[in-house]
Amino acid sequence: MNKNKPYPAHNRLINNQHSFNYDIESEWPPEADLSEIFIGLTRILQRSHAITKGVLVIYEPDGTRFVAAATWNNGRTRKNLSIKLPHVFSLFKNIAEDGRFYMDNFCRIFEGNSFERNLLLDSDSQSFAVQPLKYEGRVLGLLGYSSDQPMAFTTFENGFLDEVARQLACRISKTTVKK
Fold first, then answer.
1. DSSP code of 23?
2. CA gap 79, 170 in Å, rounded
3. Alpha carbon of 159 to those of 20, 21, 24, 154: distances in Å?
4. Which CATH architecture describes the domain 22-171?
5. ∠ Cα 58 123 140 (to 5°)
6. Which residue, among 86, 98, 104, has the nearest Cα to 145 in the 3D structure?
7. What ranges do the domains of the chain cover?
8. pLDDT digit string, tens, across residues 137-167
9. Is the predicted pLDDT of residue 46 greater than 70, yes or no?
10. What is the pTM of this model?
11. Ramachandran bin of 85, using left for φ above 0, alpha for ψ from -120 to 50, beta for the remaining angles
12. Rounded to whole angstroms, how far apart are CA atoms 71 and 116?
């Protein structure tokens, strides 16, 4: 595959208030890097959700710790990261254990540790959301976004990202099996 050519066209996206029809399997080849998929997905979501920061967090294959794999900060990206996150006072750990979508519209009081806060929020953040990436009943990672707009992620509450989160978790499971 030509590495200079972008992977997907992303033009077949259907986006409305109730669903987000984006098929990772058809848009991205099997060898596509998880960080690239996260960045492509975030670029699309940013158009309608005023995303200022984002993070893709993946459980290590042994399931002991989270690793920040990629970040988005106002369009600037960092990918192929391997930043191990502490479990002490961890909102990410709590969300993974609960397995349900989490959203907060009051960012001044953040219930996670300072590492998570720095990855997910900035001084202007008004709202944030964290979507567990579950495959076969197990949380394999988290997708987190914040915005300088209040209530930016209310559409996510009703399962807006559930299908794409499942697909991303499936990719994570295939990646961790290969290693």
1. -
2. 19
3. 9, 12, 17, 10
4. 2-Layer Sandwich (3.30)
5. 10
6. 104
7. 22-171
8. 999 999 999 999 999 999 888 889 999 999 9
9. yes
10. 0.86
11. beta
12. 12
